[in-house]
Specification:
Largest sheet: 5 strands, parallel
Structural class: alpha/beta
Strand order of the largest sheet: 10-9-8-11-12
Shape: globular
Bound molecules: adenosine-5'-diphosphate
Length: 591
């Protein structure tokens, strides 16, 4: 279909790297003989965007000249504005130049073939500094770059098949498909709404107001490729966008489409790049609020970019990109007028209401409280409360560490009973018992013991992720491995319990006779005798077992968990009125 109404793609026409069916079959056969490169999720997104023309006029991952030019001047060597390197990392360069290789998805599907023309070393120091404006690992992309291969590959690409998406295929529209639908709406003005978060009333009002301001069509264009670490999963978000667009937006002038973009969170440069990408999808306006495309603040709470930096950069280059920013400040709610207004336009005397994302999680979702209708649509409140159940219904991993015979299993067993009494269903992963199945065949070398702990950690994290309760009791002597399992399980829902019993007491108890065997030299590398135990520096709970009984210690853990909302009070401890209240959110979530 010819574009007559909309702005032309960046560079004049949409790139299309997909080969015809015949050629694809031929190349697939050929590819069985080729060496192949397995792409990261990020590179796969980049490849998909290249393939469908989302990155027009780019036709390939950048070569060194293009890469350096983009880094230094934000332009391709021919002068075309392009602010973000699109490159393909690879860890080994040997024997690749001049060869045809297969590019495969993380699940090993052949997506494309590439004739490698150039293999070059990436600028490890310069790139983060120039793209993100920082070399700090606090920036998510900078930290990720450290894990990339040392080389970049470039060369012509033939795409055999687009990456398969089984989720929401009807919403995954290529630039050409988006353009067709926008053309049909008949309006040359198209404003794109970029998002990677849930859409609350403020964002809805912002999108509608921005749409009005340009009297155009609205392209709701959420990113579902790689987003900021810690973002809400896209399954939840897409449910929300669909509900909202179906119910609260004008179907004649609104289009929802999912964008498989891998975000860099590179602030100003990123924003200009988004503008170019949106132009390829037919938009000539981009909605921008403060802190557009910003990563999380630094570890000391400082933002990486000034609040309006991205907006200003998009404005500065808007003649070249053809995309104008629709600039808005944060919207806040005025309860007395029942309306939203930009924070900079509100008289000081006016009462305002807002809820931060921290408050959403901690004061509402974690406590099972529905978000109020002035803040978000009831559909959004219901979907979010289902995705983020209150703490007492979230998974949790209670991890006991301590010397052999310190009392881990003894306390853990009592804790399991008390937690069951409080309505949680328990999986117990006791270090010794686990060794009969999960870790059968492993010995007691440091390596084997680490593997044992990691296996327990892996199973525990799966259980916790699915809202189960798991108690692990394993000596787990090393800080580094304990930290690893905490990360696996998600540190918010991981409780490290240090059973601090002295080596002498443990040896006197010697439940399984191992201390005696170690002393007699019958076994070697036994923790507490001839192998080290690193006491945790910041355990969540520390237990003393000489003066406190096992039951007292188990109850201490219960109290700790109760204070933090991991368990609800027993029904006989609650006034009848409150019982009704406490189950209401569950009903709300089911609406
Ligand atoms: P671990 O699992 O740490 O190897 P166990 O729980 O199997 O240790 O063994 C601890 C031993 O110490 C048990 O025989 C238990 O009865 C005894 N014990 C004595 N006092 C305590 C206490 N306060 N807490 C836990 N265990 C205790």
């Amino acid at each position: 279909m010819k574009n007559e109404v909309l702005i032309q793609p960046y560079g004049g026409s949409l790139v299309d790297l997909l080969v015809g069916r015949e050629e694809a079959l031929q190349l697939t056969k050929e590819a069985t003989e080729l060496s192949s490169l397995q792409l990261s999720p990020r590179s796969l997104c980049d490849l998909e965007m290249l393939a469908v023309g989302g990155f027009s006029p780019l036709r390939r991952f950048m070569n060194r000249a293009e890469y350096l030019s983009v880094l230094q001047n934000m332009r391709l060597p021919d002068g075309t504005l392009w602010p973000i390197p699109i490159t393909l990392p690879c860890s080994s360069a040997t024997g690749l130049a001049g060869k045809r290789i297969g590019l495969r998805s993380p699940s090993n599907h052949l997506i494309a073939v590439m004739d490698v023309e150039e293999v070059y070393e990436r600028e490890v120091e310069l790139e983060p500094q120039l793209v993100c404006g920082t070399s700090s690992d606090d920036h998510s992309l900078v930290a990720e770059m450290r894990t990339w291969g040392k080389y970049y590959l470039s060369g012509p690409i033939k795409v055999l098949e687009l990456p398969q998406h089984y989720d929401y295929p009807e919403l995954r529209l290529t630039p050409e498909q988006v353009r067709e639908r926008l053309e049909a709406m008949g309006n040359p003005e198209v404003i794109a709404f970029h998002t990677r978060t849930a859409m609350h009333r403020a964002q809805e009002v912002l999108a509608k107001r921005a749409q009005q301001s340009v009297a155009g069509s609205l392209l709701v264009h959420p990113v579902v490729g790689v987003t900021r670490p810690g973002d809400i999963d896209h399954f939840t978000r897409v449910q929300l966008y669909k509900l909202l667009v179906d119910r609260y937006f004008d179907p004649n002038s609104t289009l929802l489409s999912l964008l498989p973009l891998a975000l860099r969170m590179a602030g100003p440069r990123e924003a200009v790049w988004h503008a170019i990408v949106r132009r390829n999808f037919g938009a000539n306006h981009l909605i921008m609020s403060r802190n557009y495309a910003a990563p999380e603040n630094t570890s000391t709470g400082q933002p990486f970019y000034a609040p309006h930096e991205a907006q200003e950069m998009v404005l500065r280059f808007s003649d070249e990109t053809g995309v104008r920013p629709a600039i808005f400040d944060d919207l806040v709610y005025l309860p007395d007028d029942d309306r939203y207004e930009q924070s900079t336009r509100i008289p000081k005397s006016k009462r305002t209401l807002s809820i931060s994302s921290h408050q959403i999680r901690n004061d509402y979702l974690a406590k099972g409280k529905l978000l109020p209708p002035w803040f978000t649509r009831p559909e959004t409140a219901a979907v979010l409360s289902k995705t983020f159940p209150p703490r007492c219904r979230q998974g949790v991993c209670i991890w006991f560490t301590g010397l052999p015979s310190s009392g881990k299993s003894t306390v853990a067993e009592i804790l399991a009973i008390l937690l069951t009494e409080h309505g949680r269903r328990i999986t117990m992963l006791d270090g010794d018992i686990v060794r009969t199945h999960l870790s059968h065949g492993l010995g007691f070398t440091r390596e084997d013991r680490d593997i044992n702990v990691r296996r327990i950690g892996f199973v525990a994290s799966e259980i916790a992720r699915h809202n189960g309760t798991v108690i692990c009791a394993a000596v787990s002597p090393f800080n580094s491995t304990r930290n690893e399992v905490r990360e696996m399980a998600g540190s918010e829902n991981f409780v490290l319990v240090y059973v601090n019993t002295s080596p002498e007491v443990c040896e006197r108890r010697d439940v399984k006779g191992f201390y005696a065997k170690a002393r007699a030299g019958e076994i070697h590398g036994f923790t507490g005798v001839d192998d080290p135990y690193e006491p945790p520096q910041n355990p969540d709970i520390e237990l003393e077992t000489v003066h406190s009984t096992p039951e007292q210690n188990a109850r201490k853990i219960i109290d700790w968990m109760r204070e933090r909302g991991f368990i609800e009070p027993l029904f006989d401890e609650v006034e009848p009125d409150h019982i009704a209240l406490s189950i209401q959110p569950e009903l709300g979530a089911g609406i």
